[in-house]
Amino acid sequence: MADPLLNPRTYDPAHLDSESRRLLRATVDFFEQRGKKVLVDSYNDHTWYGDFLDFAAKSGLFAAFCTPAADGAGDPAKRWDTARNAALSEVLGFYGLGYWYTWQVTVLGLGPVWQSDNAAARARAATLLDAGHVMAFGLSERSHGADIYSTDMLLTPDGEGGFRATGGKYYIGNGNVAGLVSVFGRRADVDGPDGYVFFAADSRHPAYHLVRNVVNAQMYVSEFRLEDYPVRAEDVLHTGKAAFDAALNTVNVGKFNLCTASIGICEHAMYEAVTHAHNRVLYGRRVTDFPHVRRELTDAYARLVAMKLFSDRAVDYFRSAGPDDRRYLLFNPMTKMKVTTEGEKVVDLLWDVIAAKGFEADTYFDKAARDIRGLPKLEGTVHVNLALILKFMANYLFRPAEFPPVPTRHDPADDEFLFRQGPARGLGAIRFHDWRAAYDAHAGVPNVARFREQADGLCALLAAHAPSEEQQRDLDFLLALGQLFALVVYGQLILEQAALTGLDADLLDEIFDILVRDFSGHATELHGKAATTDAQAAWALTQVRRPVADPQRTARVWSQVEALSGAYEMNP
């Protein structure tokens, strides 16, 4: 396997087509030529990243990556390609959350448009992208958050086939500059789901009132109000239940980008942390000679590689999805919930090593330590996504179905199914291929075998001591159980990607050393829950396992970590 971490010195996404490679390399070069001082100073001073948006506009970056082929006027560079979108998301995260965020909310803002049959709105969005505009997603409200059942954005019919919209939206990225804002509301004259409306607004319209930036950051996360805003018939994207589905399906598309942003942030932080620690001498010893430091850095590296393996493999399921294969709807909240929380763990491990250095204003790490916290909290909390994951547990563990193998998907194809996902229901009926196959294929890896014992133990628990009706109403109990299930899913895709990429066997064993420890920790948590029965608690204690130790293996993986010292430092 090639170097698993993104390194701007050698970056060349050779798995993509030539135009995508050129645009991604140009993005890296923009940041490197701009330099680290500008990067950190603009972050510290909360300077709006207009220069980056100018680059994106002039290069046609967002127009290429965000325009589906059907709306691209025959331009072969324009398509919605999850593989290259993931690559861009990782690059932008590598240089800072704000740059990723303006891209992310553009993706979200376009979701309801590309799902719409409104040809005029689609053409308008494509024209705006060509002109270099960014977009916004007007869903959340201050009083209700993202509870779309309770929207207070009211649309009153104007008697001419359109509406007048009045209401506020809160926590809306790009709301200060968006050429198109997809806004969710409800008709004042129609009750229930039939009254929902998604419409396109323009932040430059005089009836659009920008209130403020609600965060203390470089990015602009707006509060805005519409006052008697004219919504023409050609501005309406969806009505009724279709508007509700468009909201959920847009989040399905957009929240995948959180995992790759987290990966990019962790990669940059890791280079900086390892280089600092390896070149610092304390008490007459190099910091990285201390055993606890080596363990923490090795764990951070293994966790980060695991994040990439899972996320890369999830791309394939997104791109191969269709009406009869919706397995991506499990792997998607997994990337949002699991990968982003793993990112927090990676940064925490690095921070324990570099200590006070992690607070210094002229470092990238100072920004990473703050921004990595945000990703698990966007597009639904960890708890919301973990509860969603639980809907798939029974079919995933106990009722496998036959599917053709999903190949690696780096082909330059348009992922048009993502904009015709259909009704956002029926998750409990989705079937999966047998998760055991990936584990069986790596049974010779000691810690994969040890973790497989724990996964089989989870199945035994659910078969013999399934949650009672009362426990199924106790979300605190279910979330503890969900963490155990999530680890099994996480391990499966890691193993599949390891096989496809020829991952170093030592590194794979080290990753599963961590998963064995994590499963033991979550089993201990389940043991301590007030709702856990005696039988379930007894089971939990049997799942506290030690990983298979191999000092020589760990030393070989450490050599991979040590090689990161000096491997990359951003241009000053």
TrEMBL record:
A Pfam family it matches: Acyl-CoA_dh_1
Gene3D superfamilies: Butyryl-CoA Dehydrogenase, subunit A, domain 2, Butyryl-CoA Dehydrogenase, subunit A, domain 3
Signal peptide as annotated in the record: none
Keyword presence, Flavoprotein: yes
Gene Ontology MF terms: acyl-CoA dehydrogenase activity
Domain Acyl-CoA dehydrogenase/oxidase C-terminal: start-end pairs: 244-392
Family membership: Belongs to the acyl-CoA dehydrogenase family.
Descriptive protein name: Alkylation response protein AidB-like acyl-CoA dehydrogenase
Organism: Micromonospora palomenae
